[in-house]
Design goal:
The protein is α+β, with helices and mostly antiparallel strands. The protein is 60% helix and 10% strand. α1 crosses α10 and α10 runs parallel beside α16. The longest helix is centred in the first third of the chain and has 35 residues. The N terminus is likely disordered.
């Protein structure tokens, strides 16, 4: 089985909803850990009567957290490798999702406690246990994180299904991350014995964490029960992720390196400001309960921002979207810094600060994805998984920096156990705002300057790269070498091969198309079709050897060794996939007549491009007989166009 075509609609919906709920619980856990754990440590864990001792313990805890995060940067590649090499009857990922969800949830709940007063009665032992629990939780969270987001390709081989699944997951994760902020203070206060000016007490914070841990664990169980990994030989992975490879990819790919530096500075900045917001509501405004209003607004605008990204990127370009978003965030921080206790101004500024975050995340994700092809063209090797692993590593690095800065800000501003809005001095306000707005602004401006000066990989540059890769996609393939998987499955004895038209339309001589690369024969020998239908089908039985992120072309190898490129339109690479849906993936086996790609002709015409489909055989020099059965007139997909000899045969 290589696809999900036999899967019922009900099963697909169940899988999609289960995965979305998994993303919901997964990001609830992450938001609790990254945003609210520090305020628990600094403001509630210790007795308010021992400020000097408390500050010292806070320093040790924040140092441990930050240091462990840096250590984990070295562990993550081994985590991915372990998951890749896990083979159970439940699949690669679900055992780790369930194990990570279970152990991580238990550890999270314990960390949101004073461990029966051990933090005061035996501080050294508390710190030892804390370090063990935190690294255990973080490692198992990473197992769950890598396993969870790696499931998308395993759930379906259909690109359209993958996009729908990913969209459901993004919506679920956005709601999960923000709803924690909506419920945090109401839950804390509800479960607290001492309301403490709306800040709650240790019991309230423990019950809040236990509630999040339970929901996160349930969501992991739902993913394990409600989703199904696609069992196929095509998913066997022989490559191992090695630590030195991660840094090798980063060092030699200059666009990835500069973008990593940009994003590392940016994500550290926004995580600092985001983590300080509840402190602001608690100690500047004195109204922690109103924090829920902000997170409710963020939940709504976050979904809207995700949906707005494609039209904004198309109208302004990703690069300009990045600069506009940074400008809006800096303006928001300026308003925030002078908002004082005005709820309206604080909400306006905080929402203005949040709206650009999912947009910048998507810009960075797209450029990182494009840097895969950049590195492939530059070095002749495609480092897909290693390249995409860079972003979560940088998020963790940003989290480590954020923990250090926020812990220091809370201590220096006096926002520790027993403090209230009325007890914070003007100097404390100034120090806190410097950390909340000044440090992040400096980090973000530095990252933006690097982006402006060093990042040149935009949509146009990527289109040129893909265009160049199209010309060389087949060069690493051999027609007379070692047998591939499909050769083992099927032996072909025939010397004459029937090559069918992959599309319906009117035949055009390849020499008459307006793309010189195809017209000159540089790309191969074949034919062109002026399409009357937007569906592309497999012209033979074989395997998908090459796909492109823009989905406008596909490379196939037949069971007989025929290498063919089907290219939709002229200049359509610049459409960046808009109007194209791809139904198969690289490495997937296809049958003659199976639908490969569907494109919307009005979208191509609206963009001002020619929709002619070029069909070329790139290894035509290895073919002894190349006979046209039909070279003019109308043609229907599945109609025989060529008779070819088997290229595996020795030529005279």
């Amino acid at each position: 089985m290589v696809s999900n075509t036999g899967e019922t609609t009900g099963r697909k919906i169940t899988s999609r909803l289960s995965y979305s709920f998994g993303a919901f619980g997964h990001d609830m856990f992450y938001a609790t850990l990254s945003t609210y754990f520090m305020i628990f440590i600094t403001s509630h864990l210790f007795d308010k009567n021992s400020s000097a001792s408390n500050d010292k313990m806070i320093f040790f805890i924040t140092f441990i957290i930050g240091s462990l995060r840096f250590v984990e940067l070295l562990i993550d590649p081994f985590i991915g490798n372990a998951i890749d090499n896990t083979n159970t009857k439940w699949g690669h990922f679900k055992p780790w999702i369930l194990a990570g969800g279970t152990i991580g949830s238990v550890a999270l709940a314990i960390l949101f406690s004073n461990m029966f007063g051990l933090n005061v009665s035996n501080p050294v032992l508390y710190l030892v246990i804390f370090a063990f629990l935190y690294i255990t939780m973080d490692i198992f969270y990473s197992f769950k994180d890598v396993g969870f987001w790696s499931m998308i390709p395993a759930i379906s081989f259909d690109s359209a299904d993958r996009e729908r699944t990913a969209t459901f997951a993004r919506v679920g994760s956005n709601i999960g991350a923000n709803i924690v902020g909506v419920i945090v203070m109401p839950l804390v206060v509800f479960f607290s014995i001492n309301k403490n000016h709306g800040q709650g007490d240790l019991r309230g914070w423990f019950m809040f964490a236990a509630t999040i841990a339970l929901i996160s664990w349930i969501s992991a169980v739902v993913v394990a029960l409600g989703t199904k990994e696609n069992d196929s030989l095509l998913r066997k992975n022989t490559e191992k992720t090695r630590l030195r490879d991660v840094f090798k990819v980063l060092a030699r790919n200059d666009q990835l390196m500069w973008l990593s530096l940009t994003y590392g500075l940016y994500t550290a900045g926004i995580q600092i400001t985001n983590a300080c917001q509840l402190y602001y509501f608690t100690y500047i405004m004195g109204k922690p309960g109103q924090y829920s209003w902000l997170m409710g607004l963020n939940m709504v605008v976050g979904i809207i921002a995700v949906l707005l990204f494609p039209p904004l990127a198309q109208k302004f370009s990703r690069r300009n979207v990045f600069f506009y978003c940074i400008g809006l965030m800096l303006l928001a921080m300026l308003i925030f810094a002078f908002a004082g206790s005005s709820l309206i101004l604080v909400l306006i500024a905080a929402v203005m600060f949040y709206i650009p975050q999912p947009l910048i995340f998507l810009v960075v994700l797209m450029i990182i994805s494009d840097s895969v092809e950049y590195g492939q063209l530059k070095f002749g090797h495609r480092d897909e998984s290693l390249t995409l692993a860079v972003r979560p590593l940088l998020d963790k690095l940003g989290g480590a920096v954020s923990n250090w800065v926020v812990g220091a800000a809370a201590v220096l501003a006096g926002m520790t156990a027993g403090a209230t809005a009325g007890s914070i001095t003007n100097q404390g306000h100034l120090v806190f705002k410097l950390f909340m707005f000044g440090v992040p602004a400096l980090l973000m401006l530095t990252g933006t300057f690097i982006f402006f000066k060093k990042i040149t990989l935009d949509e146009k540059e990527h289109a040129k790269i893909v265009d160049e890769l199209e010309k060389t996609w087949h060069e690493h393939l051999e027609t007379n070498g070692e047998e591939s998987m499909q050769d083992i499955e099927k032996k072909v004895d025939a010397t004459t091969i029937s090559y069918q038209s992959p599309i319906t339309g009117t035949l055009v001589s390849l020499s008459d198309v307006s793309d010189e690369n195809f017209a000159s024969g540089n790309m191969g020998k074949g034919f062109a079709v002026k399409p009357t239908d937007g569906k592309v089908f497999a012209p033979f039985d074989g395997v998908v050897e090459a796909t492109f992120p823009t989905r406008h072309a596909i490379g196939l190898r037949s069971d007989d060794g025929i290498l063919t490129l089907i290219h939709i339109g002229i200049g359509t690479v610049k459409m960046e996939g808009t109007g194209f849906v791809q139904y198969v993936d690289r490495g997937q086996r296809v049958k003659q007549g199976q639908e490969l790609i569907e494109f919307w002709q009005p979208a191509i015409k609206k963009a001002g491009y020619d929709d002619t489909v070029m069909v070329v055989i790139t290894n035509y020099k290895d073919i002894k007989a190349f006979n046209y059965i039909k070279d003019t007139g109308d043609v229907t997909h599945g109609e025989e166009i060529l008779n070819l000899s088997n290229p595996n045969e020795k030529r005279d």
